[in-house]
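Lecture 7 notes: from sequence to structure.
We start with the chain below.
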Amino acid sequence: MADLYSEAGFAERDGAEGFIAKTFNTCHWLVAVEGDRLAGMARAICDHASDCFIQDVAVRKEFRRRGVASGLVSRLVEQVSAEGVDWIGLVSVPGAEDLYRKCGFAPLKGYTAMRWLKRPRPDGVNHGSDCASS
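Predicted structure tokens for the same chain:
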């Protein structure tokens, strides 16, 4: 799994095991296996009531274009939908939008994906420190 995370760009190979161990608190983990090889994985973070985010969909290069990713995403959607969760989101990497469209996802019109930046400003203050004064 550390090799797959590294290949997908989710974590550096050195230290990936520690990163992966922390992610096991995720609500749903799925893996695709062919023989004794890990072909792909995906996970979902959810509150089991209303909201879910699909994360880290990754498939080894030699297993791509075989329906592995769409199978993993579809299965995650089935699992969280069965819990009654009706808001399932994800952020697509550029070029993967068609995969997610085929799985029933669509862009959120009028919304912007955003990420907290933890890099300090030139004055040494963290970007998020001005949030309380907004």
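Points to note: DSSP finds four helices and four strands in the chain. The longest strand covers residues 37-46.
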